[in-house]
Amino acid sequence: MSNFFQDYFNIKKIIKSKQEYKQQMARVDALPEDYQYVFKKIQEHMWKFTAGAGYDMMEVHYGLIDLFEEGVAEGKTVLEVTGKDVAGFVDELLKNARTYTEDRRTKFNHDIQKKLES
Q: Which tens digit of pLDDT belongs to each residue from 3-14?
């Protein structure tokens, strides 16, 4: 329960996160148009799966910006960075993030184990 209050009612943390987010989005705005488009589509897709306050997802988000900036610096197209299966690329990005899918999967397994072990 303390994590709940730490994530949802910590005004300083919320303000700091919003400032950081705006700075990161300025980096996205500096990317070429095709990178911006794909980034925003990925971002839109990722937020559908975020769990809790979404702080785990922000790390993934910022790492994606770094990856895209590297791709631009190397002269790659955005699809050379992500591959043509962008949804699969996003699945890989989300493997280590806390998502609703993972939360549901964990609860599902827990409920079955609890019932069968009693």
A: 655 655 677 877
